[in-house]
Amino acid sequence: MLKRTPLYERHVAMGARMVDFAGWEMPVQYSGVIDEHNAVRNAAGLFDISHMGRFIVSGPDAEAFLQHVATCDVARIAVGQSSYGLLCRPTGGIVDDIFIYHLPDEYMVVVNAANRQKDWDWLEAHTDGFDIVLDDRSERWAMLALQGPAAETILDQAEDAQAADLAYLPFHGTALSRLFGVDEVLITRTGYTGEDGFELFFDATHAAHVWDALLKLGEPGGLKPCGLGARDSLRFEPCLALYGHEIADDINPYEARLGWVVKLDKGDFVGRAALAQIKQDGPARRLVGFEMVGRGIPRHGYPLQSSAGAEIGFVTTGMHAPTLGKPLGMGYVPTGLSKPGNTFDVLIRNKPVQVRVVKMPFYQARYKK
Length: 369
Hints:
Blueprint: H1 8-13, E1 17-21, E2 24-29, H2 33-42, E3 45-48, E4 53-58, H3 62-69, E5 82-88, E6 94-103, E7 106-111, H4 116-124, E8 133-136, E9 141-147, H5 151-156, E10 174-179, E11 182-188, E12 197-203, H6 207-218, E13 224-226, H7 228-236, H8 272-281, E14 285-292, E15 303-305, E16 311-321, E17 326-334, E18 343-348, E19 351-358
Parallel strand pairs: 3-13
Antiparallel strand pairs: 1-2, 3-9, 4-7, 4-8, 5-6, 6-7, 9-12, 10-11, 11-12, 14-17, 14-19, 15-16, 15-18, 16-17, 18-19
Helix pairs in contact: 2-7
């Protein structure tokens, strides 16, 4: 049996195409991936992301524990702020990418849906010596993402949302508000689309009410319900990493261009020794972005090879980028081939097609700083 979010019946009633995603029955599209993608770039879109994991870390050693397991400097996350981070293995490989939210009396760690149990087990395995309490709130809370340049205007018009002072909520900021009559809604200025927007956390019993209210409020401005298809294309254009594609247990942060989130100077943490060595030596391969010189669309898993036919890497994500109007891809190649302008081939249906390395990201994110 596939798991379902509290909004499953809403998705079906609205005609969404449902698919199996990491063991969850989720909407991949409503009106169409391109239509939903463009809505987020030009107005706003609403996503149900309640399948993601939401863990609470509390207790006297909550900060010290997260410093021990995460690569980012948790001590620098002020109350009311959040930060992107990584969980890494002792070898430097990435267990998962996470978001850490510093709430008044606790921390919330948001993890990928596909890794919920793995991440929970990983955190539990590292609790020895720390006076903390881990609480899995994933089933109790709903999680929505309202994304796009019109997101602030839409949310600010909602009942009681003004209490959160959305216009003054900084990038990665968090605030508790009352929304559509629902108490204790956590509003965060975070997202995964390359646009300004918010993620909302609240009691799952109110999921349908808040979903309906937001869609009704946003109708005049073009707000659309969006599925996982648009979520993928939206994160692809600004080159945001996706677990199982750009990052994985056998990929380290430096080759994934995520070295900026590894704070080696904060003190010891899981994976620090290996990561320090990788940084000193330099990664043997690097994630690159590329455009097609020949015709075709690169897809996840397609081999990358030299002009002589030797396999040199693989495609992590590839598609026709809706905003940019052309096929693009990301993939891993030897570091010596990672500079813009270098060319090699992608193997599409056993036929080599030339590609050219281009600067990343493909699309400049428009976060509100």
